[in-house]
Amino acid sequence: MSGIVLSASVRQNLLSLQSTADLLATTQNRLSTGKSVNSALDNPTNFFTAQSLDNRASDINNLLDGIANGVQVLQAANTGITSLQKLIDSAKSIANQALQTTVGYSTKSNVSATISGATAADLRGTTSFASATASSDVIYSGAPGGTTAITAAKTLGASQGVFTGTAATAGDGTTALTGTITLIATGGTTATGLVGNAQPADGDTLTVNGKTITFRSGAAPA
């Protein structure tokens, strides 16, 4: 049996059809995979570059998963802190209510005093008081039992003092005051304690708190 003889033009058309079929298969493969380069035979440079980028994208996705887990942990911690804050606010409210609640008693007054030389065993201290007589039996001596009344002959804790100093004088500055000197009288001449420079004269003035008082002789106005 003799073979089929094809002319040159027919062979060229057959090669074109085969090339078209190959291109169609490549296009269908690209459409099905969504990649323009599916193997190193298509484009070695782009294939290995795409493979490296795919690996990097996978690593980034893993990092994103870790970040998402961390965000969830932070959200849980935030929820716990919010709950604690609410608990603290509730405790503050209860404490404020307790502070505002009236207690079973209230302070009426505060009295404090300092006793010189007082101790826990003896509150009398070292202060001394003197008196010539006791007016009643309500004051007791320091005898044991606290029932012995003090007598008029005893002093209360110290010896009596005596006032000493310069004697008081009349208006002239030299005459000592005695029982016979009159300090206030109906007339200036009879007030013996105001003789001399202490007795105001007619026309003398006296200023008190910004008010001036003028002394005049003669009868008082009606």
TrEMBL record:
Signal peptide: none annotated. Residues 12-129 form the Flagellin N-terminal domain. One of its GO terms (cellular component) is bacterial-type flagellum. Keywords: Bacterial flagellum, Cell projection, Cilium, Flagellum. Pfam families: Flagellin_N. It is found in: Bacterial flagellum. This is Flagellin-like protein. Belongs to the bacterial flagellin family. InterPro entries: Flagellin_N. It comes from Bradyrhizobium sacchari. GO terms for molecular function: structural molecule activity. The lineage of its organism: Bacteria, Pseudomonadati, Pseudomonadota, Alphaproteobacteria, Hyphomicrobiales. Coiled coil: none annotated.
